[in-house]
Amino acid sequence: MGRKFKNAVYWSVRRKPKNIWYFSDGNSECDFIYKFDDDYFAIQVCYEINGDNQEREINGLLAALKFFNLSEGLILAVDQTDKILIDGYTINVVPAYMQFH
Length: 101
Known about the structure:
This protein is an alpha/beta fold. The chain has one domain (2-99): 3-Layer(aba) Sandwich (Trna Endonuclease, Chain: A, domain 1). Helices cover 31% and strands 39% of the residues. The chain has helices at 2-14, 54-67, 96-99, and strands at residues 19-24, 29-36, 39-45, 72-77, 82-86, 89-95. The chain has a six-stranded mixed beta sheet. Strand 2 (29-36) and strand 3 form a beta hairpin.
């Protein structure tokens, strides 16, 4: 289900900007970096944040935020919400349906 969810999010994100990238620094990965107008956005997609994947998902997003000098990013999940403040960065966990309705 996770791969199908990520693919659905990709096509929803793809409708707006044309420039979408995958980010990897060799240690961490972020699913989507995109540029809309002159702003960059970082999005991590995870079907469900849990104890097995939370650190990996957050670290991937943080690496992208640092690289692109962004102060906040987004983790899209199926039905979770949270606000994570870490090292001066804000990570908003929101249900994907709230972003693409």
